[in-house]
Structures are given as structure tokens and as C-alpha cells.
Amino acid sequence: MHLMTLSTAGRATPGVLAGEEILDLVAACPSLPAAMQVPQSVRGILEAGDAALALIGSIRDEVLADRGSLRERLRSRAALVAAAQAKLLAPLPDPGLILAAGLNYHAHLKEMKGTPIPDRPASLYKSSAAVIGPGAAIVPPREWADMVDWEGEFSAVFGRHCHRVKASEALDYIAGYTIINDVSARNWVRDVFSAEGTFGPILAWEHNILGKQFPTFC
């Protein structure tokens, strides 16, 4: 099942893919009373757990199985729109935390000559305030517009709160997957390769992370 967040009349509403169309789960309420029980955001749906996901699955299946006028009623209310024409926001516009593993692609490390392969994962974060949706414009800093870089990242979305989870149970907490464009201001990383002493490398790495927090950089 594919969940997404739509921009509908200036509001963010949850949607679900139904064939080659997207069902707006808020706009669908007058034609599908069961949709009134669905939380009105993707984050709310994930927080509601398996029951909410099962309900959305049954609503989607009802639409896909329709052989009467239901689909036409939904289309007339703009509650069912062609996927190619839908205006999408980020699937989860308001994540609580975006945690990433740094220095994790060997090919990328080779591009950055002199970067050693770490013996353990490095971590960094992206600000949720930097999140934008697909097709939205990335705004480079004016001073270093030619130093902005992109990285396509595979992202696992946690669907439940968790802490100190056993490795064997980790995937039980994953609600789904999406793609993140990790945009960076590369001029903020240059000191990493020349920093010396104890605190110099620490401060340089933190400076690099700050270069990933500009508005529109996620």
C-alpha cells in the first residue's frame, strides 16, 4: 500500500494509491463514510497503527472493486485524481526526526578523494524544517550557489515509537520506505579534510552537518 500527502486547496491531506489514481482520504468522506474514521495526516495514520492501515486498505479495495458510480462520484469531488496530475507534498511533511548514516556509500567516498572508509557508521541529521515535496524548488545559498550538491538516499520510515530495540525486531517498527534527496552546501565540509587536534575535527564535522540544514535541503 502506498501512502502519500497531497496538497488540496492549500491543505495537506493524506492519500492512498488506487491503481493509477490517488484517493484523497479527506475529500472522499462524503462518498465513503468509512474514510471519516481515518486520521487526517500520514503521521496521524502511522501513529494510529495497524488498525488505521487496515481501514485504509479496505477503503482502497472498495474503490478498486467498484463497478458502479462510486469512482465517478469521487472524481467529481476531486477525491480521486490521476496520479500523474496530483500535487504531492513530502509523504511525511512533519517527521519528528530525520537521522542519517554518513560516509556510507563507497562510490561516493571514492569521489571525495582522500576520504577514508570508516570502521563504524557515522551519523548525522537533517532538519525537519528543511523538508519539501517532490518537484518543489531547492533554493541554493546565494554566496555559494555553485557548491550545492545532492545525494539520493533510501529512507526507512519508522511507524512506531521505539528505543533499545533488538536487531531481530527492528523491521517490525518500519512502516514503509521513501526516497530523500540529501542536499548539502559543500563549502561547509572543506574544513573536515584539514582540521587538526582533538576538537578541530569534531567542530569541522558539526560544521559540515550545519551545511545540510538550509531551507529546502531535504
Structure write-up:
Helix content is 22%, strand content 23%. The chain is of the alpha+beta class and 218 residues long. It has a four-stranded antiparallel beta sheet. The longest helix has 16 residues, at 50-65. The chain is elongated, with a radius of gyration of 21 Å.
Q: Which characteristics define this entry?
A:
5 helices, 218 residues, 22% helix
Neighbour order of strands in the largest sheet: 1-2-3-4
Oligomeric nature of the chains: single chain
Any low-confidence stretches, pLDDT <50, length ≥5?
A: none
Shape: elongated
* pLDDT averaged residue by residue: 91
Compute the CA-based radius of gyration: 21 Å
How many alpha or pi helices?
A: 5
Share of residues in helices: 10-25%
In N-to-C order, the SSE pattern is EEEHHHEEHEEEEEH
What is the tally of beta strands? 10
Quickly give the structural class: alpha+beta
The span between the termini is: 24 Å
Outline the secondary-structure elements.
Blueprint: E1 3-8, E2 11-18, E3 21-24, H1 42-48, H2 50-65, H3 70-76, E4 80-82, E5 98-102, H4 106-111, E6 122-126, E7 148-149, E8 152-158, E9 174-181, E10 184-185, H5 199-210
Antiparallel strand pairs: 1-2, 2-3, 3-4, 5-6, 7-10, 8-9
Give a short overview:
This protein has helices at 42-48, 50-65, 70-76, 106-111, 199-210, and strands at residues 3-8, 11-18, 21-24, 80-82, 98-102, 122-126, 148-149, 152-158, 174-181, 184-185.
